[in-house]
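User: Can you recover a sequence for this backbone? Please restate the input before giving your answer.

Assistant: Of course. Working from this structure:
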C-alpha cells in the first residue's frame, strides 16, 4: 500500500483480496481474514459470490463483473457476508491488475464503513451539528458520529444495537417510514419530533431526515439517519412567538386593550419600545381629529391606543394612551398610512435634512433615549388601514434585520384582524345600546293606580346588548298594565325585535284584551313575523323568540291578573314585608305558535308591591333560579323604602360589584 493509500484509510490496513475475471478468489490477506472470518484455505479458489450477503449472490456477482469490465478503478459500498452469516457493510475499491492481457484480475481493498467515516470524513462528521447514524438493512446501528453519541439520552442506541432494542417513545412512524424506505427509496425529509431526555434534561425538538444507502450494484444496503436539534432555532422561536401571539393578542373585544396587548407582547421579544396608534375611524367616539389644531409642521393623525417600553415610565413616548398623536405631514408615519407599505430603517437617519428637522420633540427623544433602528408597519384589515405600529430599538444594539421586519408584519397582521373585530363589535354594541335606550320608555306612568320605578342594567360589554324591556300602560277605569319581556339573543337584532314587541304589546293592550288573550295574539303575531323574516333570509323563529310577563292591576277591586309566556313569576310583597312568588302558569315562549296561556288573579292590598323582572336578575352561571329567587326575597325585605331606593337596593344585593352576565330589567309597582 502506498503512503497516500495508508493515509486515506487513517492508518488502518484495508482487507485485500484478488479476484479473477470469472469472479474466483485467487488471493486473500490476513486483514481480510480478520474482517470476514474466512481463512485463505476456506476462500481461495471459491467464487467471490460466497462473500456477498444476498440470496442471488452469484447473479449479482456476474452482473457486477460485467459492469466493471474495461474500467481501471471503481469504488462503492457493499454488504459483505461474514463467515458467521452476519452482514458487514464495507467501502470497496477495485483496481485492475492484469496478469496477462487475456486474463485480467482485480485487487479489491475493503474497509468497514465505520472506519472510513471516522477516518476520511472525521473532521466533517464529528464537528457537524447534525447527529448522523448508519444502519444496515436490519436497522442495526453500524456507525454513529460524536454528535449522535452526545444525544444518546434522547436517542438510546449504540453500535450493534437495533432500533427495536430501544423504547419507541413516539418515533414508531419514523421506524415504519425507514422500513418502507428500504423498499421504495423515497427519503424522509425534515420530519419534526419531540423527545424526552432519560437523563432529566429539557425536552428537545429534532428535525429528522432519513435516506437510503445503495451498493455498487444499486441494491439497498441500509439507511443514513440525520437529526438536528432545532429546539432553540431562530426560525422555530419565531414560529412559537407567532403562535403565542394568537393566544395573547385579541383576548377581548376591546380596541384599546387589544392595541395594548400587541405593544406589550412585542416588548422586549422584538423591540425595546412599541407604540400602536389608531386612525380616527377606529375610535370615532373620541371625537374627530380634524377639529384639532394643526400647523404646517404638525398634524393630528392618530390616537395612541397602545404603548410599551423596556424602560419604566415610558421615557420614549411623547403621548400617553388615549392622547392624540401629532406627526409631520411629510414623515415615515404619514407615508406608511398613505401607501400601506412598511417603513424599514435598520439604521435610523438622524442627520440634518431629514423629516426630524421639523419635529424637534421627537428628535430630542431619539437622541436622549438612543433610538437607532426603526420599523413602522401599517395595521391593515379587510382592505382598510386602521393605523400604524412602530417598533424601535434602543438598548438592543443589534439593528433590525429583514426577518425582524417579516416577524413584525406577521404580528401586526394578526393583531389588525383582532382590532378590526373589536372595532366592528364596539360599533354594533354602541348602536344596539343607543337603539335599546331609544326604544325603552323614558318615563313610566302608573296612572292613578300605582307608583312605579324601574331599572335597566345592560349586560357586561363582552356579552353584548340584549332585548330585555319593560313598560307600563295606563288603561281605562283606574287600571294599569305592567309588562316585562326578554328577547332571545343579543345585539342590534335583539334590540330591534324588542322594539317591535313593545309596540305590539302596547297596541294589543289598548284593545282591552285579557292577559292570556294578549299573549296568545302576541304569539301568533311573532310567529307570522318569523315566517316572513325567515322567508326573506332573516332570523329564524328560535332567534326571534321571547319570554314575557303581562299583568293588569285594577285599583277598584285590588285584583291583579297575570299571565306568563316562559317568564319567571313576579314577586308580591305585602306592606309588612312578606314576600311570595305567585304560581303563574309558565306557558311557552312567544314565537312558537302554540298560543295557549293561562292567567291567575292575585289580591293586592294598598301599599303592596308587585315586582316584575327578567331572568338576568335571578339567574347566573354559578346559581340557579331557586337560589336567585331566595336572594331576591331577602332584597325585598324592606318594602317601606321609597321605590327608587328600593330598586337600588335590589340591584346592589343581586348584582353587587360584579358585571352582570345578562341584561337585567326590573319594574316595581306600589299600589295606591
Amino acid at each position: 500500500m502506498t503512503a497516500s493509500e495508508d493515509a486515506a484509510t487513517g492508518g488502518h490496513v484495508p482487507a485485500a483480496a484478488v479476484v479473477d475475471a470469472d469472479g474466483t478468489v485467487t488471493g486473500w490477506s490476513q486483514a481480510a481474514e480478520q474482517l470476514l472470518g474466512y481463512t485463505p484455505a476456506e476462500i481461495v479458489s471459491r467464487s467471490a459470490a460466497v462473500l456477498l450477503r444476498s440470496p442471488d449472490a452469484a447473479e449479482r456477482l456476474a452482473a457486477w463483473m460485467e459492469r466493471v469490465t474495461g474500467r481501471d478503478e471503481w469504488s462503492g459500498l457493499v454488504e459483505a457476508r461474514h463467515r458467521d452469516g452476519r452482514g458487514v457493510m464495507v467501502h470497496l475499491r477495485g483496481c485492475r491488475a492484469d496478469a496477462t492481457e487475456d486474463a485480467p484480475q482485480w485487487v479489491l481493498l475493503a474497509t468497514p464503513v465505520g472506519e472510513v467515516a471516522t477516518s476520511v470524513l472525521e473532521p466533517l462528521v464529528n464537528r457537524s451539528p447534525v447527529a448522523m447514524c448508519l444502519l444496515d438493512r436490519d436497522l442495526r446501528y453500524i456507525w454513529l458520529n460524536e454528535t449522535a453519541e452526545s444525544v444518546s439520552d434522547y436517542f438510546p442506541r449504540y453500535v450493534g444495537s437495533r432500533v427495536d432494542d430501544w423504547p419507541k417513545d413516539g418515533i414508531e412512524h419514523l421506524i415504519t417510514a425507514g422500513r418502507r424506505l428500504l423498499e421504495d427509496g423515497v427519503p424522509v425529509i425534515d420530519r419534526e419530533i419531540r423527545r424526552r431526555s432519560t437523563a432529566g434534561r429539557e425536552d428537545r425538538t429534532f428535525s429528522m431526515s432519513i435516506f437510503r444507502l445503495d451498493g455498487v450494484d444499486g441494491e439497498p444496503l441500509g439507511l443514513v439517519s440525520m437529526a438536528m436539534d432545532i429546539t432553540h432555532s431562530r426560525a422555530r422561536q419565531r414560529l412559537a412567538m407567532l403562535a403565542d401571539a394568537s393566544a395573547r393578542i385579541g383576548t377581548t373585544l376591546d380596541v384599546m386593550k387589544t392595541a395594548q396587548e400587541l405593544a406589550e407582547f412585542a416588548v422586549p421579544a422584538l423591540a425595546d419600545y412599541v407604540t400602536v396608534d389608531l386612525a380616527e375611524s377606529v375610535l370615532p367616539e373620541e371625537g374627530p381629529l380634524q377639529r384639532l389644531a394643526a400647523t404646517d409642521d404638525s398634524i393630528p393623525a392618530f390616537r395612541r391606543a397602545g404603548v410599551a417600553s423596556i424602560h419604566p415610565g415610558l421615557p420614549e413616548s411623547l403621548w400617553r394612551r388615549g392622547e392624540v398623536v401629532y406627526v409631520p405631514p411629510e414623515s415615515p408615519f404619514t407615508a406608511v398610512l398613505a401607501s400601506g407599505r412598511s417603513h424599514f430603517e435598520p439604521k435610523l437617519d438622524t442627520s440634518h435634512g431629514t423629516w426630524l428637522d421639523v419635529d424637534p420633540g421627537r428628535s430630542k427623544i431619539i437622541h436622549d433615549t438612543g433610538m437607532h433602528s426603526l420599523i413602522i408597519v401599517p395595521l391593515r384589515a379587510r382592505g382598510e388601514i386602521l393605523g400604524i405600529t412602530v417598533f424601535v430599538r434602543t438598548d438592543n444594539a443589534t439593528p433590525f434585520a429583514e426577518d425582524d421586519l417579516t416577524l413584525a408584519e406577521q404580528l401586526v397582521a394578526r393583531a389588525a384582524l383582532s382590532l378590526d373585530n373589536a372595532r366592528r363589535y364596539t360599533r354594533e354594541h354602541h348602536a344596539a345600546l343607543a337603539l335599546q335606550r331609544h326604544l325603552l320608555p323614558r318615563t313610566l306612568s302608573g296612572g292613578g293606580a300605582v307608583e312605579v320605578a324601574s331599572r335597566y342594567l345592560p349586560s357586561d360589554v363582552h356579552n353584548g346588548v340584549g332585548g330585555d324591556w319593560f313598560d307600563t300602560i295606563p288603561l281605562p277605569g283606574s287600571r294599569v298594565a305592567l309588562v316585562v319581556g326578554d328577547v332571545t339573543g343579543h345585539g342590534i337584532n335583539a334590540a330591534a325585535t324588542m322594539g317591535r314587541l313593545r309596540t305590539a304589546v302596547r297596541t294589543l293592550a289598548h284593545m282591552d284584551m285579557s292577559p292570556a288573550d294578549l299573549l296568545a295574539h302576541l304569539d301568533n303575531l311573532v310567529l307570522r313575523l318569523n315566517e316572513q323574516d325567515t322567508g326573506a333570509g332573516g332570523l329564524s323563529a328560535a332567534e326571534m323568540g321571547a319570554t314575557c310577563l303581562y299583568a293588569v292591576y285594577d285599583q277598584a277591586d285590588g285584583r291583579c291578573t297575570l299571565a306568563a309566556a316562559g317568564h319567571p313569576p313576579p314577586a308580591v310583597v305585602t306592606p309588612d314585608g312578606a314576600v311570595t312568588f305567585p304560581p303563574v302558569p309558565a306557558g311557552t315562549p312567544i314565537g312558537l305558535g302554540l298560543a295557549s296561556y293561562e292567567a291567575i288573579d292575585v289580591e293586592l292590598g294598598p301599599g303592596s308591591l308587585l315586582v316584575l323582572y327578567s331572568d338576568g336578575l335571578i339567574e347566573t352561571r354559578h346559581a340557579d333560579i331557586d337560589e336567585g329567587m331566595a336572594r331576591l326575597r331577602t332584597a325585598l325585605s324592606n318594602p317601606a323604602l321609597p321605590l327608587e331606593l328600593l330598586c337600588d337596593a335590589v340591584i346592589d344585593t343581586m348584582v353587587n360589584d360584579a358585571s352582570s352576565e345578562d341584561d337585567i330589567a326590573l319594574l316595581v309597582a306600589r299600589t295606591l
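That completes the design. The mean pLDDT is 86.
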